Amino acid sequence: MSYFIYIVSSLCLVTLQTALIPRLGFVGHFFDLLLPWVIYLAAFRPVHEALPFVMFMGALMDNLSGGPFGLYLTSYVWLYIAVRLAATVVRAENAMVLVLVIIAAVASQNGLFFMVIGMSGAGGHTTGEMIRVVSEQIGWVLLTGPLIALGMRQAKRLTSRRARKVLESRAATQAE
Amino acid sequence: MFSKKTVLILVGILLVTVNVILLAITTRRPPGTGIGRVMIAFAAPFQGLATRTANAVEGVWRDYFFLVSVSQQNQALKQQLAQAVQGNVQRHELELENNRLRELLGFKRSLPGPAIAAQIIGKDPSAWFKTVIIDKGQADGVQRGLPAVTFHGVVGQIVESSSHQSRLLLIIDRNSAADALVQRTRARGIVKGTSRDECYLDYVMHEDDVRVGDLVVSSGFDGVFPKGLLMGTVTTVDFQGSDFFKEVRITPAVDFERLEEVLIILKPQLSAPRVSSDRR
Q1: Interface of B with A (CB under 8 A)
Q2: Exposed, middle or buried: residue A100 (CB in 10 Å: 0-12, 13-18, 19+)?
Q3: Among candidates A18, A66, A110 on the partner chain, residue whose Cβ is nearest the Cβ of B129
Q4: Do B155 and B262 meet the contact criterion of CB atoms below 8 Å apart?
């Protein structure tokens, strides 16, 4: 059931990102909407459930992008690991922390892309342009991040409540 | 002296007489004078209040039902207007699509090989790469390496194809390269993408005559794009005396931000269709 929800949600996000947002001319460069999703999975979901799905999302995005295969996969998996480690020392439920983590994720994903583009020797983008694009993306995170963070918290609470109910019903069954 | 009964009769006769006299007097006098005015003045405010209240209640009652019907009518009219506007927008969209497809059809006839029209259904999720997903795949005869064009010029080539969708690498992507010629002087170079909305024409020899405004067309030597398809217009030419090659930038003929449909040339035969300078 969880995987079904994950897949449907990611497909919605991918569709939004690749087919709908590009039609809105005023948006410009929007950030990768799957980054908050990866952060959520890393911060609030168990490894056995989240990691395979994060890898699936990376592969999906790599297939949709013109970049080298593995670029998104790499960025998602490393983001997953970094958030997982950070969640042991930082309280991830804090909305401000979540927004900052999304900003860091957007910046580091673009950093990885620049690095790979630089390694390929293709060149093309000027530093000024890169800064402009990343700034635009971070601007969108600042605008939409708080809502996303609230959504994450709400989703976390709902899943915790559901998990508690399942545990209680199991305990009741065992007691009978 | 008088009995009680007699007194009552007398009082009755007196009252009737007084009454008749008063009636006689009042019928001869004009109305609106005396006590009548006082009474009117006394009662009028209450009457006015009552009347206003009743009118208000009646008005509210009547207007409510009236407004309900007006509101319903308003809603219906708004809905009709919205439908009309939507219909108008759709008709306009169809008209635009029709024009684009006419252009494509006209252009398709001028192409050397069979071609299939495809719609762009998705764009690259990353800002740093320029690919699009189209709605035609192997089932439609689309394969890796086939060129995509529009009435305006060269779009790119298929880099990946599934059964019903394909990924198209645009000529503005940094990984794209296509052999090209400057139409006026036949100077040769390689059109390379920058992942921005412009391309470079690389490897143009320093002695070649290239000027701003020159048209750049595909040469057909790369084995992908048919010869003579418009690729772009030269916007800047930089050259230092010691350089071996000129640095030439071109603006692509195709507006990639507004690209919605493309033609995939299924079996490119590398001969030239007609190229006009006013396609964009």
Answers
A1: 121-131, 133, 159-160, 167, 169, 173-175, 193-196, 257
A2: middle
A3: A66
A4: yes
In this structure, what token pair is assigned to residue B250? 């071109």
B70 Cα to chain A: minimum distance (Å): 37
Interface predicted TM-score of the whole assembly (ipTM), two decimals: 0.73
- Cα separation of B189 and B234, whole Å? 12
CB contact under 8 A, B124 and A66: yes
Residues of chain A positioned with their CB less than 8 A from the CB of B172: none
Q: Which of B126, B167, B174 sits opposite A122 (nearest CB)?
A: B174
pTM: 0.67
- Closest chain B residue to the Cα of A134, Cα to Cα: B127
Number of Cβ within 10 Å of residue A74's Cβ equals: 15
Q: What is the CA radius of gyration of chain B?
A: 46
Percent of chain A with pLDDT over 90: 24
pLDDT in tens, B44-87: 566 666 667 767 777 777 777 777 788 888 888 888 888 888 88
Decide if B254 contacts B152 (C-beta within 8 A): yes
CA distance, residue B234 to nearest chain A CA (Å): 18
**Helices (H) and strands (E) in chain B — how many of each?**
2, 12
What is the tens place of the pLDDT at every residue in A55-106?
A: 888 888 888 888 788 888 889 999 999 999 898 888 877 888 889 999 999 9
H or E, element range at B61: helix B35-110
Tokens of B8: 């009552």
A64 contact B CB<8A: yes
Asked if B244 and B131 count as a contact pair (C-beta separation under 8 A), the reply is no
Q: Which of A22, A66, A125 sits opposite B196 (nearest CB)?
A: A125
Is the backbone of residue B160 left (phi > 0), alpha (psi -120 to 50) or beta?
A: beta
A68 touches chain B (CB under 8 A): no
**Contact predicate A84/A42, CB 8 Å:** yes
